[in-house]
Design a protein that fits this description.
single chain; Glucose Permease (Domain IIA); Nuclear Transport Factor 2, Chain: A; 10-stranded antiparallel β-sheet; 3 domains; 7 helices; 5-stranded antiparallel β-sheet; 423 residues; alpha+beta; globular
Length: 423
C-alpha cells in the first residue's frame, strides 16, 4: 500500500525524472483516495533513504560507517568518488543521502557539493556491477541582471558596498577576480570608487542560489575607468579584456589574500622587528587578516617547500616561470594537497592565515624573489606586463560582443536608477 503519511526524503531537485513521475502518480493517488480509503495504488517500495548533514570534522569513510555500511563497500565508494572529487573538500553542514535496497545493500550515495551540483556514487544494475560516479548539476534558471556599488565612508569595502545594495559576497569575490590584476583590494580602494556589473543570477526551484557568469564589469577608480569584458582568448579559454581587447590578467595577482585585509608593513631593508626588538630587513609585505583567511597562489607554479620553517612558521614556497619564487609565511595550515611537487594554478588555495613562528598576531608575510634576490612585491608586480591580447582574427567578434554587453549594462543601470528615483 502507498503510505501517504510518509514524506519523501530526497529534495525534488535531485530526484530523477523517472522518480519524479512516480512521485506524481503516487501523490495523485493519495489526493483521490477520499475518506473511504479507496483508490490505493500498489507501488512496491524498493529502497530506503537516510538523509542527514555532514557533522564537523567528518570524513566520507566516517559518514558511511556511521550508517552501518560495511568496510568493503565503504572503501569502494570512497575510492570511486575520489576519481572526480577530493575527499578532503568535504564540508560540514552539507546534506548527504544514503540509499539502500530493502535487504540493506548499498544502492547510491549523494553529497551536495554546493547549491549548483551534487556528487553521486551508485551501483550498476546488479550487486556484482562496478560502482560508478558522476557530478550532477541541479536544474536551474538563469536571469541576466545588473548592479552598481559605490565605496563610501559607511561602506568602505566592496563587500559592504554590494551588501548595502542587496547583493552578497559571492558577487564581490567575482569582481575581485576580474580586477585583481588592476588594483589591490587590500589598499587601493577610495571613497567615490564605483563598480558596475552585468551578471547572471542563478535560481533553483525559484530560489536564488548564487551568481553565474559575470559578462561585463566597469571600475571607476581614482578618476580613471577600467572596463572588463568576458571573452574567449587566443587559447580558447575565457578571460577578461579591456575595451580594446588587451588582457586584464597580470602574471601575478595584486594580492595573495581576499580583498578585505590591509597592508600593515611594507618591504624594507631596515625595519624594527616587533618580536625581537632590533632592526632587520623585512623582505616582503605584511597583510593583516583574520585567523584562517584563505591564502591564494598569486601565479601558476610548482610548490618547492611546504613545511614548518622556524621563525617563518608554516611556510609555502612556490617556483614560477621567469626566475620568480613566492613565499607565504606564518600560515596556520596548508591547503588541501599542498606538498612539494604539487602544481598550483593562479588563485588556488595554498594555506590559511595564522601566527606560527615569530609572529605577534595573525597575518601573512608575502615575499617575491627574482633570480635569487628578494624584491619589493608591490613594485615588482606593477612592472609586470599584461597577458596576451585578443588576436586580430578575433577582434571583430570581440568588438561586437563588447558593444552588446556594455549596451545591455548601460540600459539596465539606467532602469535601476530611474526605478530608484521614482521610489
Amino acid at each position: 500500500m502507498l503510505n501517504c503519511d510518509v514524506e519523501f526524503m530526497l529534495p525534488k531537485a535531485i530526484i530523477s525524472i523517472a522518480a519524479a513521475s512516480l512521485l506524481a502518480v503516487a501523490a495523485g493517488a493519495c489526493a483521490g483516495r477520499g475518506a473511504s480509503g479507496r483508490g490505493d495504488v500498489l507501488l512496491p517500495k524498493e529502497t530506503e533513504t537516510v538523509a542527514a548533514v555532514v557533522p564537523a570534522n567528518a570524513t566520507f569513510e566516517g559518514l558511511l560507517r556511521a550508517q552501518n555500511l560495511d568496510s568493503s563497500t565503504t572503501e569502494r565508494v570512497v575510492s570511486t568518488l575520489r576519481t572526480v572529487f577530493n575527499p578532503r573538500a568535504l564540508r560540514a553542514d552539507q546534506p548527504y543521502w544514503l540509499i539502500r535496497t530493502l535487504d540493506g545493500a548499498f544502492s547510491e550515495f549523494r553529497y551536495e557539493i554546493d547549491p549548483t551540483k551534487f556528487l553521486r556514487v551508485f551501483r550498476g544494475d546488479d550487486a556484482a556491477s562496478a560502482f560508478e560516479v558522476d557530478v550532477v548539476e541541479y536544474p536551474r534558471e538563469v536571469e541576466m541582471d545588473a548592479a552598481s556599488a559605490e565605496i563610501t565612508a559607511d561602506n568602505n569595502s566592496l563587500s559592504a558596498a554590494l551588501d548595502a545594495g542587496g547583493e552578497n559576497i559571492q558577487l564581490a569575490l567575482l569582481l575581485s577576480e576580474v580586477f585583481g590584476g588592476v588594483i589591490d583590494f587590500n589598499s587601493d580602494l577610495q571613497r567615490g570608487d564605483r563598480f558596475d556589473a552585468l551578471f547572471e543570477r542563478v535560481y533553483r526551484d525559484g530560489e536564488l542560489t548564487g551568481y553565474g557568469d559575470l559578462n561585463a564589469a566597469v571600475l571607476h577608480h581614482g578618476g580613471k575607468t577600467f572596463t572588463a569584458i568576458r571573452a574567449q582568448g587566443p587559447d580558447g579559454k575565457y578571460g577578461w579584456y579591456d575595451e580594446d581587447g588587451r588582457s586584464l590578467k597580470r602574471r601575478f595577482l595584486a594580492s595573495p589574500l581576499p580583498f578585505t585585509p590591509r597592508i600593515t608593513s611594507g618591504y624594507s631593508t631596515n625595519r624594527k622587528h616587533p618580536v625581537f626588538g632590533f632592526s632587520r630587513a623585512h623582505l616582503g609585505v605584511d597583510y593583516a587578516a583574520n585567523y584562517g583567511t584563505r591564502v591564494q597562489a598569486v601565479a601558476a607554479g610548482t610548490v618547492v617547500f611546504a613545511s614548518y620553517s622556524g621563525q617563518n612558521g608554516n611556510l609555502v614556497r612556490i617556483r614560477h616561470a621567469g626566475g620568480y619564487e613566492t613565499y607565504y609565511l606564518h600560515l596556520s595550515s596548508f591547503g588541501a594537497g599542498i606538498r612539494v611537487g604539487t602544481h598550483v594554478d593562479q588563485g588556488d588555495t595554498i594555506g590559511r592565515v595564522g601566527a606560527t613562528g615569530a609572529a605577534t598576531g595573525p597575518h601573512l608575510d608575502f615575499r617575491i624573489r627574482k633570480n635569487g634576490v628578494f624584491v619589493n612585491p608591490v613594485l615588482e608586480r606593477q612592472r609586470m606586463p599584461p597577458g596576451e591580447p585578443i588576436p586580430d582574427t578575433l577582434l571583430d567578434t570581440f568588438r561586437s560582443n563588447r558593444d552588446r554587453v556594455l549596451g545591455d549594462l548601460s540600459r539596465r543601470l539606467l532602469s535601476l536608477s530611474a526605478h530608484a528615483n521614482h521610489n
